[in-house]
Amino acid sequence: MLAEVRPTHAAALRGPSINPELAARWLVAFLRDELIVRRGIRRAVVGLSGGVDSAVTAYLCARALGAENVYAFRMPYATSSAASLSDAQLVVDDLGINCRTIEITAAVDGYLQFEPEADARRRGNVMARTRMLVLFDQSAKLDALPVGTGNKTERLLGYFTWHADDTPPVNPLGDLFKTQVWALARHLGVPAPLVDKAPSADLEANQTDEGDLGITYARADAILDQLLLGYSDAQLVERGFDAADVALVRRRVESTHWKRHLPTTAMLTNTAINEFYLRPVDF
Amino acid sequence: MQPRSSATAAFDVAILQVKPAKGRYPENLAQIGEAFAQMTADGPAPALVLLPEAATTGYFLEGAVYELALSAERFAADLARTWCEACGDRQVELCCGFYENDDGTYYNSALYLRVGGGSHEIVHVHRKMFLPTYGVFDEERFLSRGRRLQTFESVLGRAAVLICEDMWHAIMPTIAAIKGARVILVPSAAPGRGIDGEREMRSVAHWREILSACAAEHGIYVLYAGLTGFEGGKGMTGSSCIVNPNGSVQVQAPELDACIVRGRVDLREADLARASLPLLGDLHAVLPDLLLDDELPLPKGRPQ
Q1: In chain A, whose CA is at the least distance from the CA of B67?
Q2: Helices B171-178 and B202-218 meet at what angle, rounded to 10?
Q3: What's the number of domains chain B is made of?
Q4: Which of B227, B75, B2, B142 is nearest to A276 (CA)?
């Protein structure tokens, strides 16, 4: 009897891979080109949440610009986890970057006192948008550029606050899935507590990303990686993915396309901006 | 009796891997001039200097291409003046990608220019034939396709220019080789993709496989000039290189830095490669039979 060799989908089921050394090299070059070469800005402002995405962003910015040119901001609300602050401090201590803590409680509550019935989702959105207000104002003060921290998984699943987390003009992690960010974090030497803990937006007590999403990042990333290549749900299930997981991921992606675009403008002329009048962002 | 060779000379060549500032044509030309001066500061000028696609403007221009495109004559004059101001009356042949305005028809083109002794001559203009219009690419929205693949006489012998995706279609270098090209020049602008590559972006490795396979199949030199630097988040992969006629890489630049790549083209190597692997000769013999196949969708005569 001859052995038979057949194709498998094992690699697809494992999810997207990454060469973290290569990714780090490219992203450092990206930050230097976007900030220094294109804009002539040598300082970066990063909102340091205590999570892995903003930590990786801070490490990349420190490599690209020098630790002395990175300004981290911790922006806790009254209900934020104490661990978020202490984990962020691990990054600050390891890198030697500048850091300032600005409580957003008074600002957030200053508005929400007029909206006492606001639910957790609305309150979380106000917090996220208040943090972005701080980052942009501090950037103006410091002659710096806010650097975004959103990853590809949360962008695709719509798991972010529109016009908040997604607003910084440059984003090094936006084309990396969460599991790739974890691998990059380990390569860059991000402290283990940040890499190993359950990711959380920390907008509500005991909140975790994977609890909110209803799927683990590992499973979501493996599905997303194939889904974006154009495979149908049936093909993904044939490859060994769970049908309910595939449906969940598909639903989230297809209901959030609008969050990945600029606001919709009514087109009325043949010089409509970004429809007929087309210029690249770096022109 | 001396052995007879199709070419007896070897030539020093250079590739200028540039990182243009988007749309800043005068500044980019000035930077190119500085590099020209550097490459001739301590020795003779290379016989040929190759530059990337869209080397003086950046690649992704969208509608701004209509503001920045130039006639071949104007671009030739600017490039020749840049050379002469940097290097005096030394002779050189230059090949450089640019956006061309041909009386209101726009092309992604590459100019092949002979400069020296206070004058210049346009030897050839290749207009990109395969315009990528998928995914991140949108060339055919703004540009027209070139219609002819021609070879021409260069300082290195018979040569052809293929711009970026032109080179991805194996039939293009094959036709160039059939038409006598010993050297193929590839100005390119390739945004990097594939972060799971072994030591470089997967797209860089894929490019090198294409260049090496083409060089080895036809016994030709391939000179590849890659644009570098980020354009709105898209990182151009540089990696300019010279591939020998046996498919080996003579020299390769890094991905993300502007630099000068120096190398040597020795057409005797091409003779040896073709002697040890005479695939091009075999193709010459078989090609008429292949083209007589009635199932091939070949037009009768050139479309008007």
Answers
A1: A279
A2: 30
A3: 1
A4: B142
Give the pLDDT confidence of B153-179 residue by residue, as tens digits.
999 999 999 999 999 999 999 999 999
Distance CA B256, CA A194 (A): 31
Q: What gap in Å lies between CA A130 and CA A123, rounded to an integer?
A: 11
B256 touching A (Cβ < 8 Å):
yes
Q: What is the 8-class DSSP label of residue A68?
A: G
Task: Give, to the nearest 10 degrees, the angle between helix A178-188 and helix A52-65.
Answer: 50
Rounded distance between C-alpha atoms, residue B248 and residue B213, angstroms: 9
Contacts of A277 in chain B (CB under 8 A): 63
Angle at B215 between CA B210 and CA B216, to 5 degrees: 100
**Location of each CATH 3.40.50.620 domain in chain A:** 18-208
What is the homologous superfamily of the domain A18-208 according to CATH? HUPs (3.40.50.620)
> Distance of CA B170 to CAs B20, B40, B103, B126, Å?
29, 36, 32, 17
Cβ atoms of A164 and A125 within 8 Å: the answer is yes
Domain that holds residue B118: 11-287
Residue B293, domain member (yes or no): no
Please judge whether B232 and A282 are an interchain contact, meaning their C-beta atoms are less than 8 angstroms apart.
yes
Give me the interface pTM, i.e. the ipTM. 0.92
Residue with tokens 């970057």: A97
Burial of A271 from C-beta contacts in 10 A (0-12 / 13-18 / 19+): exposed
Give CA angle at A92 (A90, A95), nearest 5°. 105
CB contact under 8 A, B233 and A30: yes
Beta-bridge mates of residue A124: none
CATH code where residue B42 lies? 3.60.110.10
pLDDT in tens, A260-275: 999 999 999 999 999 9
Residue B227, helix vs strand vs coil? coil
**Quick check: is B294 in a domain?**
no
Checking A190-193 for CB contacts under 8 A at 24+ apart, the result is A190/A52, A190/A55, A190/A56, A190/A59, A190/A91, A191/A55, A191/A87, A191/A90, A191/A91, A191/A94, A193/A87, A193/A90
Determine contact: B149 vs chain A, CB below 8 A.
no
Q: What is the pLDDT of residues B104-137, one digit of tens each?
A: 999 999 999 999 988 999 999 999 999 999 999 9
CB of B66 within 8 Å of a chain A CB? The answer is no
